[in-house]
Amino acid sequence: MVVGSAAVSDGSRDVPVLIVGGSLVGLATALLLRWHGIEALVVERHPGTAIHPRAGHFHLRTLELLRAVGLEEQVRRRAAEQYDPDGGINNVESLAGREISHFIQNLNDGVEQFSPTVRCFIDQDALEPILRERAVELGAEIRNRTELASFEQDDDGVTATVVDLESGRESTVRAQYMVAADGNRSAVRNRLGIELRGHGVLSDSITIYFRADCAPLLAGRNQGVTYVTNSVLRGFFRLNRSAGSGFLAVNLIGDIARPEIVARYPDAPWANVAAVATPQRVEELLRAAIGVPDLPVEVVDVATWRAIADSAERYREGRVFLAGDAAHVVPPNGGYGGNTGLADAWNLAWKLAAVLKGEAGPGLLDTYDAERRPLGELTVEQAYTRYVTRVATYLGTEGLQPILDDFSMELGQRVHSSAVIEEPDDDGSVHEHPSEAGGRPGSRAPHVWLERDGKRVSALDLFGRRWVLLAANEAWTAPAGVERQVVPAGVADAYGLGATGASLVRPDGIVAWRAHEPGEAVDAVHSRLLGR
After folding, report:
1. Alpha carbon distance 8, 175 (integer Å)
2. Do 225 and 257 sit in the same domain of this protein?
3. What is the pLDDT of residue 7?
4. Residue 424 domain-assigned (yes or no)
């Protein structure tokens, strides 16, 4: 079923969901809404998709999302054209200098036991067109060079005024819900008066896009991201597969390893890189990071940006939802920004679809904030810890969260809300290692290989568009709107079902409920989870 829109007599637009912002998260939200059968309109002030690489390290859960919507193989092929699929992350004095440490030796060490897919590096300007094409193919409407001018909301929806930036023409959009995916300086968030909480601005950074033959300096190294720590700057490289072009992000300048320097300048001028980014200084920084003074280099562009570690105090106001950088802003360390935004879209889209189709009560939408905000706050703190320990040690370690392992962050995040029925021994934690989850309600459904129609598939391939009753035997009956899957013993064991149990798994692959033997009526449980 497709929940559609209609033209209003005055030429305005009536649509179930208006999405403000057509970058990575906005495009993903539109794609997922259409995938669930919901009309969506995206307005984006820029003329097209991203023109710079930006987000590039995509985590396992993101690749699982792309797998669900049929884009995994396309994305992995495009990623392999750009970067080594198993690149690592290290820290050097310069590309020509000594190696200081390794953060990750191989991006995909140990992945196969937890996921049917792999991590990858792909530039945002390569990924966004893939998402856009798929969203349009599914029927999403995307208006570029169109800006949100104002909006008001009432009990029944949102009325927005949008402006075509080419013609100056204004029009009205009436939506039942609006998603703000308009970035870290979100005008929608500011209009709603939603504050950011956290560590604030960490640095006024720059990214230098350049061309230079760095291949001889990387011989024998299998790198995806290379941090640079020396007396001139602190930042990181991402070079393409040929090592002939890429970018250098510079977070700090100067010899901040010397305590007397830090003590002398309490206002931290070393964190204001953008203020001194003259063409001459930019080239000096690039050469200091490469470590070969006379290497020919071409600076293609320089972008300024702020490293920030903050999360919004709430992710919903009435019928407006914040997603992506509008909801949480993280420094790039750990690659959490784009991945966390895509997880927002994955969580929100199926819930909006269920409510708009009349399958769920409106209270289901309250679970978006309840589930995503604690995880956004966790992610902000984890990214901040990585920023401090990898780049800005002068900030000190007092109050830092210990670094969680990547599997726990990518696959072990847990949710707590009325859309999950927790078990009596649940400790309320928001993370655990995926090897320990065991199909516990609130956790991501475990990956297990099984045979279906003569093909080897992951248990994760059973989920995505609908609720699934995962049953250990034929005694279980699924209610209307739920697909029953009777699974072999190996899968049942991985989900903690034994020989007689069953689980309800949500469309986003989160285990919502589990019983170890027949008894409680599944239809009543399902209705409760949907807020009916």
Report:
1. 12
2. yes
3. 41
4. no
Q: For residue 496, is it left (φ>0), alpha (ψ between -120 and 50) or beta?
A: left
Q: What would the mean pLDDT of 300-308 be, rounded to a whole number?
A: 95
HEC assignment per residue over 374-442: HHHHHHHHHHHHHHHHHCCHHHCCCCCCCCCCHHHHHHCECCCCCCCCCCCCCCCCCECCHHHHCCCCC
Number of domains in the chain: 3
Reduce the DSSP state of residue 194 to 3 states and report it.
coil
pTM of the model: 0.94
For residue range 197-245, list pLDDT tens digits in order. Answer: 999 999 999 999 999 999 999 887 767 889 999 999 999 999 988 889 9
The span from the CA of 35 to the CA of 17, in Å, is 14
* DSSP designation for 105: S
Q: Provide the residue count of the chain.
A: 532
Q: How many CA atoms lie within 13 A of 64 on its CB side?
A: 28
CATH code where residue 28 lies: 3.50.50.60
> Do 166 and 204 have their domain in common?
no
Residue range 344-392, pLDDT digits in tens? 999 999 999 999 999 999 999 999 999 999 999 999 999 999 999 999 9
Same structural domain for residues 40 and 139? Answer: yes
Residues 209 and 313 in one domain: no
Per residue in 239-282, pLDDT (tens digit) is 988 889 999 999 999 888 777 666 666 677 889 999 999 999 99
Co-location of 204 and 181 in the same domain: no
Q: Report the SS3 class of residue 455.
A: strand
Using DSSP bridges, classify how beta strands 40-44 and 170-180 pair: parallel, antiparallel or unpaired: unpaired
User: pLDDT (tens digit, 9 = 90+) per residue, 339-349?
Assistant: 999 999 999 99
Are 20 and 158 found together in one domain?
yes
Burial of 174 (0-12, 13-18, 19+ CB in 10 A): middle
Residue ending a domain, among 353, 374, 395, is 395
Range of the domain at 283: 199-308
Q: Give the DSSP H/E element, type plus range, for residue 19.
A: strand 13-20
Examine residue 409 and state whether it is found in any structural domain, yes or no: no
**CA-angle at 433, arms to 431 and 438, nearest 5°:** 100
Phi then psi dihedrals of residue 265, to 5 deg: -125, 80
